[in-house]
Structures are given as structure tokens and as C-alpha cells.
Amino acid sequence: MTTSTLPATDLFPAVRAENQHIALQEGDTTWRYISLHHRVDQFASGLLGTKTDLKEERIAFFMPASLDYVTTLLGVWRAGGIAVPLNIAAAIPELEHAISSAGVTRMIVSVDPEDPTLALLCTLCNSLNVPVLSVTDLLSLEIAAMPVLTLQRRAMILFTSGTTNKPKGVVSTHKNIRAQITTLLKAWAWQEDDFIPLFLPLHHIHGIINVLCCGLWAGAHVTLFGKFDMETILEQVADDKYTVFMAVPTIYVKIIQHLETLDAAKREAICAGFRNMRLNISGSAACPVKLYQQWQELTGQTLLERYGMTEIGMGISNPYDGERRAGAVGIPLPGVDAALFDDAGNIINAEDTPGEIRIKGDNVFLEYWNNPKATEESFKDGWFCTGDVAVRERGYFRIMGRSSVDIIKSGGYKLSALEIEGTLLTHEKIAECAVIGVEDDTWGEAVTAFVVLKPGQQLSYGELKAWCESRMSPYKIPKVLRVMESLPRNAMGKVMKPELKKL
After folding, report:
1. Shortest CA distance to 222 belongs to which of 248, 194, 247, 188?
2. Confidence (pLDDT) at 1
3. What is the 3-state secondary structure (H, E, C) of 365-387?
4. How far apart are the C-alpha atoms of 110 and 96, rounded to whole Å?
């Protein structure tokens, strides 16, 4: 095992004292890398106090994308602590689980008197004897000497979505984070002159690593939004402000719906802004082929879809240069080993044969915090078992779905709920849909479709079945149809299928 060390100040090469380029923008205010570097030093010094090293103290923070968020994340790392970003949309019981299970010692918050959760969070922290502080409380005038860190040191705990069990704390080391960032810098051709908006939740790998950390490592310009401000962001897109855009499929759907409400001139200005970017990326959920094609027709951009998760960062990606395929997530990223395994634990070399994706590489997390049993169960022969099922088609991975919720065993077949959803979304009356398997005496699991219709539309089961008969194999046709007003989603816009199973 290597024990490479690096000064904490060198964790992000672009965040240095002599860099005069703009790092962050929030509204009309900008901060250069030189001022960010100094502010992070001040905060890290305040965190250290009389200590020389936080020695993996868990520091939690509850705040949206902001200068304070970036200061806290980098400051905790610089001082040798473990960063624990919390979901600002989480309920108090979820926050209590995260704070308690991670053994958090201090809580950093943004002072927002209009945030209804903040007072409840402060009460919770008081009951747990966890001091609540703001960034300004910790900005020190005297800069302390920063510790020298080994790459094997723990750096961050992110919590899984917890759709089937209580969320687990995913522990990443500095080595893991460094590998996740540098792999993407090369694969997606990050540049110092890139401009990117950041509106994704910052308790999730997509926003933290793919956007914020990659942007700061590359020395790019990151525009911060506390939430997805559609009108402002699209105005800036029309003004050619951005070179890179990353979002979840739901955001792309909302943008397309918004574009349909605009006059031709405004719509074309926004589409031209996207067209002029060097890269548009979709992730965190499967991108339906229909959406992929719609985006291409509107903007001329071929979405780059990729595959990752909290435990591995990004593992598989369509190429920056080369063929990008609708419905596929591409090939393993540099430095990442990815393979498909059958139920007996054998590697699948054949194409078009479903198997579980397993991953190896420096990007793979260290452990689940204080959960050795879950950690052990997640690895087999050095491979991390993702629980996601895929096939390889002409060399590219295509995700069939999560083995627990997206693979339906019906009538002796293994069916991909994602594939069925993609077909249903081409129906002219369907706006959104989710497909799950529901226990059934005849079929084992009955294919069940939950659909949200476009305004003013009606759809009977008989109509849907007749439509499906010419487009799907008989065993893929939904056997139950439920029309919904909306689908339950998490903070990343992903449909919570376990919630649908309860209906």
C-alpha cells in the first residue's frame, strides 16, 4: 500500500494563492481563486484552533451551494477532517440518523432566518451536544500551519439514498476523491476556461465531484445556485455564459417543457446557447431515449450519459470524442475496471447477456462507516458489487436497472423496467412514467406501470395495451396501469420506486 503524502493546501491545484482567475460566482458577486484560497485557510485555521490536525474529526454542514459551502468543504479537508455534507431537503429524523451514526462533533450552517428546518436542526444538535457554528464564527485572522495528509486518510462521508434500509455512510479517502476528479478531468476534457452552473444538490456525488470539485481542480469558473433557478440559468445560457452543462434527466425534461411555452425567438436563443457549449451531460438516473433524441433535435447537442454511484464516483461513460449512444452509458473510464458477473459469480464475456456490474479502481470507496458487515457484503474478490444489472452491446454497457427494483422477474423472464419505461414515454399522452414489478400469483411479478398523463389527456388500460402490442413483446406489456397525478421523487429527481410498491 502506498503512503503518498501531500500538503493539505495542494489538494486542489488551482486553489492557490497566486491564481487570479475567477473561481466562484453567486449572483453578481465573484471570488477569485486567490481569495478563496485565503478564506479556506482562515476557516481551516478556525477549525483547528489549538490543534495541529483534526485527525478525521467529522464536521457536518447544512447549506446550499454557496461560498460558505465551498469554504467549509475545502476547509475541513485542508485541516485534516472528514466532511459530512447533509441534505438540506432532508427531514429531521434523516438528519438525526446522519449526525448520530457519523459521530459528528461540529455542525456548520448558513444563517438563513427563513429556513424552517434550521431552528429544528439547532434544537436537534443541542440535544445531541453538537455545537452549531457559522462559517464566519470560524474565520481566523491568524493562519495556522496545515497538516500534511496521506492519501489514505478518510475525507468524506456521504449517505446513500436509503430506499430499502437506513442510509449507510459511504467513506471516501483523499485517494478516492483525487482519482474520481482526475479521471473525469481527462475523460471530459475539463479546461481552465470552462464555465459551468452548479444547481445540483450538494450532498450527492454528482454535484460535489462532477461539477464543483472538477471545476475547482481545473481552475474553471463555477456559478453557484442555491436551487435550480430555471429562468436565470436559461437567460445566462442564451447569453453564451456556459461551456459545460450537467443535469439529471428531470431537469432536461423541465427545460424542454419550458421551451415549449416560449416564443420562437426566445426559444431559439436558448437552444443556440446550448448548441454553442462544448458538452452537455446527463446522469444520476437513466436518460430515456426519447429525451436524448428531443434534446439533440432542439439543441444539436448529443448528451453524454455516464454511470456512477456514491460508492465509486463515476465508473463508466460515453466518450467525449467518439460515438455516444442513446440508452447506453458507454465504456469504463480510464483507471476503472468494470465487468459483468452472473449469479454464480462468474465474469460474463458474452454480449447481450445480463449481469451485475462490479467495479475495481482507486475511485472505489473505502468502507461504510461503522458498518463492517455491510462493507464485507459489498465486496467479492476485490470487486465492489454495485447491485446494478447491465448488458454489453457492441462494447458499450447498457443499464437494465437496479437488481432490487428495476429488474422484474415475470413469467420466467428478467425484464428491464427502464426499457419498458423508455417505450411508454414515446406514447403521445404520457408525460412521465415508472414501471415496477408487483407480486403476482400467476406471473411471479406483474409488470405495473404508473403514468402521469399530459394535461387534459385520458388513457384506459385497454388503449395502452393495444398500443403496446405493436411495440413490445407480450411479456413486457404492463399488466396493471395506474394513472397518477405525480410520481414520488427524491432530491435528485429520481423516482422512488419503493414508495410506489407501497401503493
Report:
1. 194
2. 40
3. CCEECCCHHHHHHHEECCEEEEE
4. 18
Alpha carbon distance 188, 35 (integer Å): 27
Percent pLDDT > 70 in the chain is: 97
Q: How many CB atoms lie within 10 A of CB 308?
A: 25
The 3-class SS string of 151-206 reads CCCEEEEEECCCCCCCCCEEEEEHHHHHHHHHHHHHHCCCCCCCEEEECCCCCCHH
Instruction: Identify the CA nearest to 204 among candidates 294, 112, 47, 86.
Output: 86
- For 290-356, what is the HEC assignment? HHHHHHHHHHCCCCEEEEEECCCEEEEECCCCCCCCCCCCEEECCCEEEEEECCCCCEECCCCCCEE
Among the listed residues 88, 348, 314, the one whose alpha carbon sits nearest the alpha carbon of residue 179? 314
Write out pLDDT tens, residues 344-366.
999 999 999 999 999 999 999 99
State whether CATH 3.30.9.10 applies to domain 407-501.
no
Decide if domain 228-302 falls under CATH 3.40.50.12820.
Answer: yes
Q: State phi, psi for 6 to the nearest 5 degrees.
A: -155, 145
The number of C-alpha atoms within 13 Å of 473 and in the hemisphere containing its C-beta is 9
Name the band, by pLDDT with cuts 50, 70 and 90, for residue 235: very high
Q: What is the mean pLDDT of the chain?
A: 93
Q: What CATH class has 5-198?
A: alpha beta
pLDDT score at 425: 92
pLDDT at 411: 66
What are the CA-CA distances from residue 4 to residues 77, 152, 153 (Å)?
16, 8, 10
Q: Do 5-198 and 228-302 agree at the fold level?
A: yes
Q: Domain locations in the chain?
A: 5-198, 228-302, 307-395, 407-501
Nearest Cα neighbor of 47 from 135, 157, 151 is 135
The SS3 of residue 450 is: strand
The rounded distance, in Å, linking the Cα atoms of 210 and 183 is 10
Question: How many other C-beta atoms lie within 10 A of the C-beta of residue 14?
Answer: 17
CATH fold of the domain at 307-395: Luciferase; domain 3 (2.30.38)
For residue range 393-445, list pLDDT tens digits in order: 999 999 987 777 788 878 667 788 888 998 899 999 999 999 999 888 777 78
**Closest of 131, 150, 179, 157 to residue 53, by C-alpha:** 150
pLDDT for position 116 = 79
How far apart CA 272 and CA 242 sit, in angstroms, is: 12
For residue 171, list its beta bridge partners: 157, 367
Cα–Cα distances (Å) from 333 to 183, 318, 326, 328, 370, in that order, read: 7, 9, 18, 14, 30
d(CA 120, CA 91): 10
Among all chains, which residue has been given the C-alpha cell 457549449?
277
What is the helix (H) or strand (E) element at residue 43, kind and residue range? helix 33-48
